[in-house]
Structure of LysR family transcriptional regulator:
Amino acid sequence: MDLLAHLEAYVATADEASFSRAADRLGIAQPLLSRRIKTLEGRFGGPLFDRSRRQVTTTELGVLLLPYARDVLDRAQRLRQAAQSARHARVRAVGVPADCAPAALARALHAGTERGITLGMRELPPAERESGLSDGSLAYALLRVAPERAAFRVPLGLASAPADTREVSRALHLEELRPRRRRTGEPAVPPLPVLVLIEDQVPCFEDRFARAVARAGLPEGRIGPAGPAADALTETLAGRALLLCAESYARRYDARWAPLGDTALHRGYDVSAPPGPRGTPDVPQWLTRLLGTAVGAAGHGDTGGPRAVGDAPARLAARG
């Protein structure tokens, strides 16, 4: 039974006090309206209208149930209006990494508003961004891919505790993190662990990073996954760890940062969407450009304010 259609017949007949006028109001044949009323009466267990008189009158049961019927129809109408508003609003959820620059994300939101699109940024780990596109919970997402086939790249480096002196940074090679020989009488300094954020705990990066670490002669225990980003950053700023991250993320918290010399260890990103009508993802170019800026991609504009001058990687090697 189409409950809403039957309740509409019931309410219209009560309002019009006539089966024929109610049928005209709803744009249906009178026999169909009468059948709907009969069906409701059978469901409710009693007559809703007194048909013994020339003018149709509502029975005691009909009067009692009428406010509830109106409420159901009102709620259904509000539901339809809400669904229509949601369709017209064009809300789009965007899955982004946790270390995006907030100001750049704000520019993307503003650009969407200018185009009549309401964007909602959702910070998610790489696997959840990919699954969000599959299950339809995300309209767009920054996906991790191998840098050589990515739309844009984000250079990675090692962040360490701030220092008072500033030196021009140069590319850091993992070999420089090998423990240096101690001079006679010099106390042993344990090497700092290198923490890897969840953003880089993806197969397309972990495999090649593990090979690079092995070639550099670093022990496996030296490299480890970071827990929550805030905890990893705290350990780094306290001088108890080195953090593998993008430059914009390190500069945001005034940490020293030295880029890795191996460009194969860059992050690679594509902006993707569920397949469109033609079977391919349809991502606006303006959104791709702004998300590239937000994630700190090389050549995608200012991502973190004025470029700070970092401490020399030699210091990282010495501390490590």
Q: What stands out?
A: Residues 108 and 290 are 6 Å apart (CA to CA).
